[in-house]
Amino acid sequence: MSIQVINNIASLVAENAVSNTQNSLQSTLQQLSTGLKINSGADDPAGLSIANGLGANIAALTQSSQNASNGVGLLQTADGALSQVTTILNQAVTIATEAANGGLTAAQTTALGTEFTSILNEITNIGSQTNFNGTAVFGATATTFTGDGTANGDATTSTAIAALTPVALGITAADATNDLSTTAGAATALEDINTAIATVAAQRGTIGASINQLTADSNVENTEVQNLTSAQNGVQNANIASVTSNLTQYNVLEQTGFDALAQSNSAEQNVLKLLQ
Fold first, then answer.
1. How far apart are the C-alpha atoms of 104 and 112, rounded to whole Å?
2. At 143, which helix (H) or strand (E)?
3. Is 14's pLDDT higher than 60?
């Protein structure tokens, strides 16, 4: 074996090995500190792309679930108002039925007509004043957008909520007092009220179906978020047990590398003994 002093190959090998070990050690420490095995594009370009794509899907689905919940809230507001209208209309049925019976005095008929007018006014007030997040509920279309962040994953659920007025419900008489002033008028008003009750029931049925659909959409989206989050964790999260094992390995390799580097450098000093 020839003896050389110009280039210390053993030292270069040891130095390169130590450098590689330190790079691996630094990466391992970063994984432990962040809990992620992908901390930059250099760690795993394909994995980073997948994790970011899954993150975008998760964000879209999370907001979509919230959109669906908001949509349910709006529709429940409308349904609650219509429920109150049904209660009011049932009161109107009682009044009209009483007015349709003969033998009432003029004062009694007038009182029933005044109460009936009050009921119609209350329906008008409910229709105009009911709102959700500052937006009128009745006479509008409730639109809910959901999606997973992809072109094929978008969906829009629309529910038309009819205007809420006595006329819209089928109660067409303008003067309630005149309607109830005769037994025939009261009987006609009673028919109109029953029509209004059926109209409200149909509207509530439509709204209820949309509530069920949006609730189901929200449940599906929450399940998708759970599954995608699990997939994202598998792609980007570090296996702490494995990383900890690597940390021990690289610490040992770093120490032995430094020892080897020291030995390779000291071997050069032995050449001086030949000159003594």
1. 10
2. strand 140-146
3. yes
